[in-house]
Amino acid sequence: MNVLDLARPEIRAMQPYSSARMEASGGQVFLNANESAWAPVGDHGLGCNRYPDPQPAALIDALAALYGVRREQLLTGRGSDEAIDLLVRAFCRAGEDAILIQPPTFGMYAVCARIQNAGVIEVALKADFTLDVSAILAAVTPAVKLVFICTPNNPTGQLVPRASVERLAQALAERALLVVDEAYVEFADAGDASVAGLIDRYDNLAVLRTLSKAWALAGARIGSLLANAEVIALLKRIMPPYPLPLPCVDAALIGLSGWGQANAREHVAIVREQRERLGGALRRLPGVREVLPSQANFLAVRFDDATAVYRQLLAAGIVVRDVRRYPNLGDALRITIGTPAENTRVLAVLQEAATCA
Q1: What mean pLDDT is predicted for residues 32-39?
Q2: pLDDT the model gives residue 97
Q3: How confident is the model at residue 357 (pLDDT cuts 50, 70, 90)?
Q4: 20 to 30 A from 129, CA-CA: which of 9, 60, 264, 323?
Q5: What does DSSP assign to residue 37?
Q6: CB 118 within 8 A of CB 88
Q7: Domain check: are 228 and 177 in the same one?
Q8: What is the mean pLDDT of the chain?
């Protein structure tokens, strides 16, 4: 069985849109795309009067080298969100197919499925927020086409062991595509926590990566899907023709340059050190019930009164994420690791609030 047999047959059979940029390359005078012949004010040589390449070669090469995959195994687009949406639309028939998720987890998996009118099967994480592989496999029905796992998990921070990913990939072969979201994997203490190296072994494995977190490019919206080349080719058929704005591609290439990578590694090291510092200090504060172990750039923290803590921080100009709506996190806030000075400010506000209580 080919992994594409899991995809919607009408997507496999459709005639994709062919953009002007895809149909012709080279040349010196471009009169095929109804673009303006003049660059806009403040263009600075980017050429924003022209449509960008659908998958810019320089960016694809840089990302493939970064993630250790072949260029035909990589699709880049507007953050991980676009890849999630494309996967759901390509593999799930409206009103018939489903995805499987493990709450509490990233909310866009379910949002994209519901927009597509696909079912959402939930298998809760264990009490300690680790993955229950046996329960996941027991819940997979013939309708399930995509199984999403997030590692490190958002919003709890735990890393899924590689052995668990392999067990799922093996058991789901010819049944479902396993999608591993590694948005925060650069922050893990392990030197190489990514499972991208398993793609050649399992054609039903896909990996989501992003430049939004460790690479400090959230505003550029550059995400990648790493997968079997046939899956990548399928998604290109339904992707909008010009997904990546030229200024965003330019920012990504600067971020992935030699000095850009050195800068990112320096900041990731600071985040790891500050994660330990902030977590240890929070555990000693009155009113803190628990700081969940995290391998991401945030901490999920349980409080005796999360509502009061949220308001105290907000009054001090500090915005954290209220995650109390998530299952089993009714007393928790998610705090992103900031600069050392920002983390010190968080601790000072919480200490002051505890003293006045």
Answers
A1: 92
A2: 98
A3: low
A4: 264
A5: S
A6: yes
A7: yes
A8: 95
**Residues 93, 136 within the same domain:** yes
Range of the domain at 285: 260-356
Residue 131: C-alpha distances to residues 103, 149, 165, 188, 207 (Å)? 10, 9, 10, 17, 17
Q: Could you read off the pLDDT of 285-305 as tens digits, one per residue?
A: 999 999 999 999 999 999 999
Q: Is 248 helix (H, G, I), strand (E, B) or coil?
A: helix
- Look up residue 122 and give its two tokens: 């939930």
Spatial separation of the C-alpha atoms in residues 114 and 135, rounded to whole Å = 23
Say how far apart CA 63 and CA 24 lie, in whole Å: 24
CB 333 within 8 Å of CB 309 = yes
What is the helix (H) or strand (E) element at residue 60, kind and residue range? helix 57-67
343 in Cβ contact with 301 (< 8 Å) = no
List of E strands, the chain:
74-77, 98-101, 119-122, 144-150, 177-181, 205-210, 223-226, 288-291, 298-303, 321-322, 332-336
Rounded CA separation 79/225 (Å): 10
178 Cβ neighbours under 8 A, 6+ residues apart: 147, 149, 165, 168, 169, 172, 202, 204, 205, 206
pLDDT at 356 over 90: no
- 309 within a domain of the structure (yes/no): yes
The amino acid sitting at 313 is: L
User: Where a domain ends, among 195, 223, 256?
Assistant: 256
- The whole-number average pLDDT for the span 68-76 is 98
Q: Where a domain ends, among 211, 239, 256?
A: 256
Torsion of CA 263, 264, 265, 270, to 10 degrees: 90
